[in-house]
């Protein structure tokens, strides 16, 4: 019997699990995929929003700026990439400048610090590649960029090291009320728990609807993105938004925390939650809209990939964070669309406060907030490289040339708590395969390392768990 079971190991579920690990609470996280950060968390804008664009009366407005403020300390404790690069909301028509003023005042109410409105010349002095048609912008110095999957992996590892149990490839089939709480029926057996926290993202509606008459309808909203090589990453420094107008919200242009350039997303409501296809029309539309912000043409010869992610959207257009009114001890954390990533730390505080008020647990006196990430060869000085190769010879073998990822890093990614078990698991932890060639060179070598470390045949190594096998047989006989 668990005290708390969290359904979903995305950034929300893992943020909650880490906060719960500060208490003497027996906690379990169950995830239908083979790894953490397998859904919306791994495919989004990777933006830590300032907190000025949500209405103060909403949960988004109340939690965004609070969550944003927590990122500096959280990144330091958990050793994941985060940078406060600042954000700009561009205005292209003097008639719309009052709308910037409204955003400014709204941001102040939400608790966003140091907001200021700049004129067009001040914007271009800060960002020389911004279009000459920009007449002004709202500047938020607290805006940031983060690696959402490295953040989630860090949260999960720290949770695990502080006593939280994780169950992967565990799909919820049904949830039944019991005398002591709930019985979660899964493909791997029953899980008994006092409290359920529903952080299932796109599938949070299905989880709620198993126990409550008050139905939640999650609408998948697909956003497509275009990612450029690092050679284009210096085009801008801040995250560039466009002031919403009657023609739409526009798209953003941003550097990534790893030095790439990212543009997107669009917004298309779907029926199929698993539909992650990109489209020619969608990509063309993103590029056209993003070009409104930048004077020079985007270097399309530097595009290395396009991708899509689905956000969990509801008609209320706000977070749902509450105990189901007709299902005691079933806590919904649903409809966590943007700015969900930015709000994740404060969402976790809110949910854990609800749990501790119910269980009244003592503090975990052995809680250790510190987690160290994988040592990155590409970020080391030559002296540091010599030292680590002497200590761990595998650091002397580069596996991914594009991202300069070594065999030592990949082995660490596999051996550490909740370590990688798939090609994508290695990719998310080390960036092996995320460079210009998109795994063209290193994938077979990573498969070999996984097979050796996991002591399985190469034919059993998968891309992302389940049936995503990579090798089906041999096409040449050994001599």
UniProtKB/TrEMBL annotation:
It comes from the Bacteria. Residues 3-354 form the FAD dependent oxidoreductase domain. Transmembrane segments: none annotated. PANTHER family: GLYCEROL 3-PHOSPHATE OXIDASE, GLYCEROL-3-PHOSPHATE DEHYDROGENASE. The lineage of its organism: Bacteria, Bacillati, Bacillota, Clostridia, Eubacteriales. This is FAD/NAD(P)-binding oxidoreductase. Residues 398-451 form the BFD-like [2Fe-2S]-binding domain.
């Amino acid at each position: 019997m668990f005290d708390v079971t969290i359904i979903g190991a995305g950034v929300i579920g893992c943020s909650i699990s880490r906060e719960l690990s500060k208490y003497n609470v027996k906690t379990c996280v169950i995830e239908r995929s083979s790894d953490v950060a397998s859904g919306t968390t791994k495919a989004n804008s990777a933006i830590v929003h300032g907190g000025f664009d949500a209405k103060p009366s909403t949960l988004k407005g109340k939690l965004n700026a609070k969550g944003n403020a927590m990122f500096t300390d959280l990144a330091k404790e958990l050793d994941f990439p985060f940078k406060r690069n600042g954000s700009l909301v561009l205005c292209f028509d003097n008639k719309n400048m009052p709308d910037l003023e409204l955003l400014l005042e709204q941001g102040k109410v939400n608790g966003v610090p140091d907001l200021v409105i700049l004129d067009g010349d001040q914007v271009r002095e800060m960002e020389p590649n911004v279009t000459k048609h920009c007449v002004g912008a709202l500047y938020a110095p607290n805006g940031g960029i983060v690696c959402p999957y490295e953040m989630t992996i860090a949260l999960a590892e720290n949770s695990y090291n502080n006593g939280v149990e994780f169950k992967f490839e565990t799909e919820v089939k049904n949830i039944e009320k019991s005398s002591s709480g709930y019985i979660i029926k899964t493909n791997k057996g029953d899980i008994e728990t006092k409290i359920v926290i529903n952080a299932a993202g796109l599938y949070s509606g299905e989880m709620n609807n198993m126990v409550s008459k008050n139905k939640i309808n999650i609408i998948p909203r697909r956003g497509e993105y275009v990612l450029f090589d690092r050679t284009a990453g210096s085009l801008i420094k801040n995250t560039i938004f466009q002031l919403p107008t009657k023609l739409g919200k526009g798209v953003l242009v941003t550097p990534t925390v790893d030095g790439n350039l990212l543009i997107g997303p669009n917004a298309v409501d779907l029926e199929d939650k698993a539909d992650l296809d990109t489209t020619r029309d969608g990509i063309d539309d993103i590029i056209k809209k993003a070009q409104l912000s930048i004077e020079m043409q985007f270097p399309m010869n530097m595009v290395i990939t396009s991708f899509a992610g689905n956000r969990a959207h509801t008609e209320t257009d706000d977070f749902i964070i509450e105990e189901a009114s007709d299902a005691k001890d079933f806590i919904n954390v649903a409809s966590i669309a943007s700015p969900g990533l930015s709000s994740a730390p404060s969402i976790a505080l809110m949910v854990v406060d609800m749990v501790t008020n119910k269980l009244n647990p003592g503090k975990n006196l052995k809680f250790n907030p510190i987690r160290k990430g994988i040592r990155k060869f590409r970020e080391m000085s030559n002296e540091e490289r010599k030292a680590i190769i002497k200590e761990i010879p595998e650091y002397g073998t580069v596996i991914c040339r594009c991202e300069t990822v070594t065999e030592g890093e990949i082995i660490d990614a596999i051996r550490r708590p909740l370590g990688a078990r798939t090609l994508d698991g290695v990719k998310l932890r080390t960036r092996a395969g995320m460079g210009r060639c998109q795994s063209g060179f290193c994938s077979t070598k990573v498969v070999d390392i996984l097979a050796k470390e996991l002591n399985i045949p190469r034919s059993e190594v998968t891309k992302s768990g389940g049936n995503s096998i990579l090798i089906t047989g041999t096409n040449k006989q050994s001599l």
